[in-house]
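Re: [help] complex structure
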Amino acid sequence: MSYQPGQKGVVVQNIERADQAVIDGLAECGVATVHEAQGRKGLLASYMRPIYPGARIAGSAVTMLSAACDNWMVHVCIEQLQEGDIMVLGTMSPCDNGYFGDLLATSAMARGCRGLVIDAGVRDVADLTKMGFPVWSRAISAQGTVKETLGDVNVPIVCAGQTIEAGDVIVADDDGVCVVRRADAARVLTKAEERLENEEAKRKRLASGELGLDLYDMRPRLAEKGLKYV
Amino acid sequence: MSYQPGQKGVVVQNIERADQAVIDGLAECGVATVHEAQGRKGLLASYMRPIYPGARIAGSAVTMLSAACDNWMVHVCIEQLQEGDIMVLGTMSPCDNGYFGDLLATSAMARGCRGLVIDAGVRDVADLTKMGFPVWSRAISAQGTVKETLGDVNVPIVCAGQTIEAGDVIVADDDGVCVVRRADAARVLTKAEERLENEEAKRKRLASGELGLDLYDMRPRLAEKGLKYV
Amino acid sequence: MSYQPGQKGVVVQNIERADQAVIDGLAECGVATVHEAQGRKGLLASYMRPIYPGARIAGSAVTMLSAACDNWMVHVCIEQLQEGDIMVLGTMSPCDNGYFGDLLATSAMARGCRGLVIDAGVRDVADLTKMGFPVWSRAISAQGTVKETLGDVNVPIVCAGQTIEAGDVIVADDDGVCVVRRADAARVLTKAEERLENEEAKRKRLASGELGLDLYDMRPRLAEKGLKYV
Amino acid sequence: MSYQPGQKGVVVQNIERADQAVIDGLAECGVATVHEAQGRKGLLASYMRPIYPGARIAGSAVTMLSAACDNWMVHVCIEQLQEGDIMVLGTMSPCDNGYFGDLLATSAMARGCRGLVIDAGVRDVADLTKMGFPVWSRAISAQGTVKETLGDVNVPIVCAGQTIEAGDVIVADDDGVCVVRRADAARVLTKAEERLENEEAKRKRLASGELGLDLYDMRPRLAEKGLKYV
Amino acid sequence: MSYQPGQKGVVVQNIERADQAVIDGLAECGVATVHEAQGRKGLLASYMRPIYPGARIAGSAVTMLSAACDNWMVHVCIEQLQEGDIMVLGTMSPCDNGYFGDLLATSAMARGCRGLVIDAGVRDVADLTKMGFPVWSRAISAQGTVKETLGDVNVPIVCAGQTIEAGDVIVADDDGVCVVRRADAARVLTKAEERLENEEAKRKRLASGELGLDLYDMRPRLAEKGLKYV
Amino acid sequence: MSYQPGQKGVVVQNIERADQAVIDGLAECGVATVHEAQGRKGLLASYMRPIYPGARIAGSAVTMLSAACDNWMVHVCIEQLQEGDIMVLGTMSPCDNGYFGDLLATSAMARGCRGLVIDAGVRDVADLTKMGFPVWSRAISAQGTVKETLGDVNVPIVCAGQTIEAGDVIVADDDGVCVVRRADAARVLTKAEERLENEEAKRKRLASGELGLDLYDMRPRLAEKGLKYV
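Output below.
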């Protein structure tokens, strides 16, 4: 039975995931490079911030759509996690309450989960930091949630302005969070790696004092547009 | 003479405080646990953020109501501080200016003050970080304030959405700030400690891979609500 | 030929800078002290936050006015940088996209640039942190920009609520960003240093337990305004 | 049995109200005058906006504390309404969902309710406008709420930054919302009416071209502070 | 040739639309009723506000994905409009500039367009009001846009937090904007009309003074949850 | 004696103004047209909203720089007003308090003032609406201000992100507020009128069903960029 949009209370159990080596390659490239490599799409809104600096991860999205201020589906979601997954939570209406804390993180880590991307609040951030469980969220709040309303797991959701489907690849670091469609992951990795290689060459030239104006041959077009030096 | 609400320019000098051992116990429990233990009330708005990560404190509230962009009452307030107190500042209208910096912190620390919770701005945050004086604020701003208008000290105030009375217990950490009524402090500590103990047991079971769905026996109620696995 | 306000596509090449020793002195004083010393003007809006804590810099402003979501002028600007400069970017309309990342920082550092103040977004913040290139920005975003529209370099701009002219001195630290007019720099430094010296004496007295109420002789004026102790 | 702060699920049935003639007098004075007359306290945050322009009301507060995104207590509250009351709703954590629409307004109007002040969302605003039922809210949203969690009725709440007790007088117009303590209402009305009379005289003088500088005799103090005309 | 997600510069020309009578029926029901009738999904974020009060429309979505601050695709989109359509614009990154004004509205109206829903800015609002062309937007801004970067027309977009596909039904009024999947439109209309009829009966009973507590039989469940009257 | 930037407490009494006929012409053109005509500069931030719809004015800026939450300089400013002027207020740090109400408006109108543009709050908006005195502000708030700190009158200020000098022309309508440099006013009016004339012709063609794609000859460049119709 396929998923009918609009249903509430559906858990899709079998999702396809991208190749793990591709996912790990995307993590190494980082958000800014991956975002550029796939044509500048898929970036979540800039209000999504990491709870601590320095984490850089990628994984397969296990998605949740939750009611406002209701974290019941997080428990349901955790059962669907596999090694290397990232939980991604969208809400039916905005809520900054803390949907997730150290106990849920303990459970998720026991299943190999790499992190959480949540368009809502998180709590126990000191503990999560010690545990090394990275979270990107819109808020930090100790205010808890209820468990009253069903949502869905592994259905397409909107999280921080992007549509995310189960099995899409999530890349997250200090620059934010980007989603790569599962089917595009390998192609995007190839482009991202080319980009990094290309950047490495440019970095050396720029470090030696060569100007971007010359490296990218911008002077003629600037002049044509009418740039005047006075 | 008792305090008449609405007066301006009143300093209440003798306030009752909770038992220091109870206060210190609440600090160890942390904001999220204390907030849950007292029935999910008393949490300040999530825009109140610590100026540096990792601090976890509790203390008796010494409250101030200040005019917008006027920090005169901070000086008045410091005289009322005792060992183990936390200053809490609310304003008559919103202002992000820096009401507080390293000199005031030096003075407050000399009286045993443990930190500041301020619904306004703070400055000298690099110095405050070096001094280990934690502040939770709505803004960081070098813009100073004036000393023209009287406010009140140790009267009930609203700070970041919560009513706070002098002598209430303030708990603050990376998750935010919570207020516990003085009279409730001992009872809340008992519940918070029970909660922590209970969580410790759950943590082990979750870490071993047991699911919250089973640990909390959620499956029957989810089924009853109509959750479908597809 | 002098700069005509309203033109687009002008690069002013020769700007005057303040004395480097004065600039370095202002850096040591820090934002809060410099801001007070010059009569509480010149502070940029408090939404301008450093990408990592602990940096404290000063430098001569090399200014840019850029179109929304268009970073072309950053490349033009870098050619104008000298040892000790700080790039300052204002936009024609608000945009949170990442105008600046590690390659541009590499190029700017090769010319001796000390940092960037940008009323827009920045990316590659993990790399910038490792490189020790400090940035104060309104947002962190991996979303890139285009190179289509001319702006201006070294013209007066508005950045985060302050007018900034090329050659003004920028001071930036964890408290935010302040601009000092080039012609005022030496005078402001003198006042700032006096202020620091004065503060040092006060700090010792406050640390020993003396109250600000007495140190600043506030009691008579508080009484005159009607402050009541109850 | 008296109300114990912190309980959930309490409805206080008998509340004292201010004299209706006083309340009606305060409505005529309007928010800005009443706020000044009581010493500039009691103003709710400026994000509270009327759903349509031109309403000016006052009434006795019937208060509610509701869970986030849960409007169950509105139904409970309506039973407590008397002719001339205003419902005032605060939430346990922030929520912009629409707690209130035309059916609830129909019910409230049947009991003589004059309006709603809600630190959350409202919906059916076109209908409410046609019905002439004024609402001051932080948001307009068609997103509904649940009925799962108990709150309290006629307990002290915080609404948009102010503590409000049942029976306090609420004044609301296009300038916002102000609360007057029940016990202060008569005294505040007297001052407000004096103020209006006083303003009427000033208005005529100002309309004839006399300057505030002269009317309020500001010139000497401005000169003393050092104002220079150039 | 089918649309490949991630492409830029694609205009899908033939889209399916819902039955016009169904669409018109949904307009009469209004946003709040339609949103409830379809199970509380599809509501756009509450920051989307009408430029003038009183409009209530429904139509088939003709979607656009535009670059930040670039309105080129609006011109492309207008060619795809049919009688009864509503234009819906999402952006690749946030921008408040005015993408749309009276000339574009003139052109859209000439093709029978009923309105615009835009997750960006709009201008000429006084003219649009006179013309009776309703717009729901996140901002009003006279700042124009460029025409440099291709986007897509009639592809799935995210607008104000909701995924919208070409041909979906958009309903918009003073309460905000809601999207109904094309395939669900007839079913949702039936439910919405039932709901309205049901509400009409309730309205009469509530207007006569019957309480919601009794009408919805809430008293037993409130008592069971522990509500106490004191 | 000329104005020294950085001074506080200076009132510049003689300012030059643009030709009144030019100013009135700019009012007729409106903000969006004027902004385009002068090359898309000078637009104030979009958070500046009119207190009532439908006003369209232009006038010579009489500027004020005020301390946070201190409206003393408004009284000083009013003395400097001439027939046809618009008051423009910037603050030294952000404040939403109501700096201005009906008495000040009465006084300003007595001197021929056409309106107020204020990067802060305003109050008595129902009265101002009745009086027909238009205000563009960042907030509406009944919270008053103090009169303690000197500012400046007729010095260059930053208001809502734009530098404004005394005598500059301010144009304001439902789209927002735009500043035109005094020296540019006549030239900008000419361009704005050309633009309006040109738009009139286009409006007719668009109203008749001609597409912008053809009217502006966009098809070749869209094809060149790679737009595909599917």
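The CA atoms of residues 44 and 160 of chain E lie 5 Å apart.
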